[in-house]
């Protein structure tokens, strides 16, 4: 009696599945683990908000506020930026990534930092901190020496320490809460010694709670740039009653992550002047 074609199909499918299973079982454990392990991005590729969507909420547009000023932050991921387009869309301030750790400088930094200035924006530079690779003071020096300085021209904002989830490994870079606070303090103190300005801290509340124990001691002197992709900035880290800047989306209508300065353009100028 002939075998029905549908039964033949099922038999062949089972045979194929079995062969695949046998092949997987024959692989060494290390090979199976490598197949399932997440891909670690290359060093230097980190940027503001890299871990925000996964850890601290999803994109959502805020309610329009006439007392806030639109800004943007960019890194090498954006390449050469069309600054005139951003200016025409209403963006009036910008931050460009300058450095990461003591091993990476953004190759597009000059175009981004100088280009935003040339179209009339108030601009600054940021550093992606990696507390597991070098001291806070060493990273502050590296930052200042490679585009993270400050001048009292009314158009240059103080530098930013971007301190958030580690895209390359342990979320807190292998540090205890007290160790993380000490590392951040070293960075801030050295930046102040080099430039005369207090750096801005960019972070997300959930990371700050996890990795600093929700330390409140920087709030008196350090402006806060909060990252939260939602319709409101939400809860702030301990000590800060308000934010200076808010990164509210990574999927804005134009290039880069989009931000709001908590004040009018005159207040952006005031921060630049110090």
TrEMBL record:
<dbReference type="GO" id="GO:0003796">
    <property type="term" value="F:lysozyme activity"/>
</dbReference>
<dbReference type="GO" id="GO:0016998">
    <property type="term" value="P:cell wall macromolecule catabolic process"/>
</dbReference>
<keyword id="KW-0326">Glycosidase</keyword>
<keyword id="KW-0732">Signal</keyword>
<keyword id="KW-0964">Secreted</keyword>
<dbReference type="InterPro" id="IPR017853">
    <property type="entry name" value="GH"/>
</dbReference>
<protein>
    <recommendedName>
        <fullName>lysozyme</fullName>
        <ecNumber>3.2.1.17</ecNumber>
    </recommendedName>
</protein>
<dbReference type="InterPro" id="IPR002053">
    <property type="entry name" value="Glyco_hydro_25"/>
</dbReference>
<dbReference type="GO" id="GO:0016052">
    <property type="term" value="P:carbohydrate catabolic process"/>
</dbReference>
<dbReference type="GO" id="GO:0005576">
    <property type="term" value="C:extracellular region"/>
</dbReference>
<keyword id="KW-0081">Bacteriolytic enzyme</keyword>
<keyword id="KW-0378">Hydrolase</keyword>
<dbReference type="Pfam" id="PF01183">
    <property type="entry name" value="Glyco_hydro_25"/>
</dbReference>
<dbReference type="InterPro" id="IPR018077">
    <property type="entry name" value="Glyco_hydro_fam25_subgr"/>
</dbReference>
<dbReference type="GO" id="GO:0009253">
    <property type="term" value="P:peptidoglycan catabolic process"/>
</dbReference>
<feature type="signal peptide">
    <location>
        <begin position="1"/>
        <end position="33"/>
    </location>
</feature>
<keyword id="KW-0929">Antimicrobial</keyword>
<dbReference type="GO" id="GO:0042742">
    <property type="term" value="P:defense response to bacterium"/>
</dbReference>
<keyword id="KW-1015">Disulfide bond</keyword>
<comment type="similarity">
    <text>Belongs to the glycosyl hydrolase 25 family.</text>
</comment>
<dbReference type="GO" id="GO:0031640">
    <property type="term" value="P:killing of cells of another organism"/>
</dbReference>
<comment type="function">
    <text>This enzyme has both lysozyme (acetylmuramidase) and diacetylmuramidase activities.</text>
</comment>
């Amino acid at each position: 009696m002939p075998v029905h074609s549908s039964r033949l199909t099922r038999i062949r499918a089972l045979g194929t599945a079995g062969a695949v299973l046998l092949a997987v079982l024959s692989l060494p454990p290390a090979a199976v683990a490598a197949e399932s392990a997440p891909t670690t991005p290359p060093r230097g590729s980190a940027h503001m908000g890299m871990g925000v969507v996964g850890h601290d909420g999803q994109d959502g547009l805020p309610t329009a506020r006439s007392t806030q000023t639109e800004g943007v932050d960019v890194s090498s991921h954006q390449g050469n930026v069309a600054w005139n387009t951003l200016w025409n869309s209403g963006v009036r301030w910008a931050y460009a990534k300058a450095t990461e750790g003591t091993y990476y400088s953004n190759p597009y930094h000059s175009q981004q930092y100088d280009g935003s200035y040339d179209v009339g924006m108030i601009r600054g530079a940021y550093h992606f901190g990696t507390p597991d690779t070098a001291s806070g003071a060493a990273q502050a020096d590296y930052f200042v020496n490679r585009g993270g300085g400050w001048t009292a021209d009314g158009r240059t904002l103080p530098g930013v320490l971007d301190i958030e989830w580690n895209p390359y490994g342990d979320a807190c870079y292998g540090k205890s809460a007290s160790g993380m606070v000490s590392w951040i303090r070293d960075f801030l103190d050295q930046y102040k010694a080099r430039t005369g300005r207090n750096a801005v801290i960019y972070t997300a509340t959930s990371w700050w709670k996890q990795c600093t124990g929700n330390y409140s001691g920087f709030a008196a002197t350090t402006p806060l740039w909060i990252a939260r992709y939602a319709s409101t900035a939400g809860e702030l880290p301990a000590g800060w009653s308000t934010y200076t800047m808010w990164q509210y989306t990574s999927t804005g209508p134009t290039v880069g992550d989009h931000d709001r300065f908590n004040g009018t353009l005159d207040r952006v100028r005031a921060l630049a002047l110090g």
